[in-house]
Design goal:
Elements lengths: L1 E6 L6 E6 L1 H17 L1 E5 L21 E5 L2
Antiparallel strand pairs: 1-2, 3-4
């Protein structure tokens, strides 16, 4: 389980990342691929992937795609 959710605590905007151990391993693996690929796409099944969860641990819709770019 790995999900990203946009939240708005206090007067700011934040991204909350929730994961179990398998999700953490997926995230670490994606970040390691980033060194060689320059960018990685993390997608949920609804967005055509399998790494991210479609819902957060709170049952809300999670962000469907996260793109990480090495600059």
């Amino acid at each position: 389980m790995l999900s990203f959710e946009l939240i708005k605590p206090a007067n700011a905007t934040a991204i909350q990342v929730c994961c179990d151990e398998e999700g953490l391993e997926e995230l670490i693996s994606a970040l390691q691929r980033l060194k060689h690929q320059g960018h990685v796409h993390l997608c949920s099944p609804l967005a055509g992937g399998k790494i991210l969860s479609d819902q957060t641990i709170h049952g809300k819709d999670a962000i469907g795609e996260v793109i990480v770019t090495l600059i």
